[in-house]
Amino acid sequence: MAHDTVTISPGSRFRAALVLVIIADALQIVVFPLFVEGALSPADDILDFGIAATMLHLLGWHWEFLPSFLAKLAPGVDLVPFWTMAVANVYRKSKRVAVAAEESRAHHPALRDPQHS
Question: Per residue, what are the HEC states of 1-67?
Answer without folding.
Answer: CCCCCCCCCHHHHHHHHHHHHHHHHHHHHHCHHHHCCHHHCHHHHHHHHHHHHHHHHHHCCCCCHHH
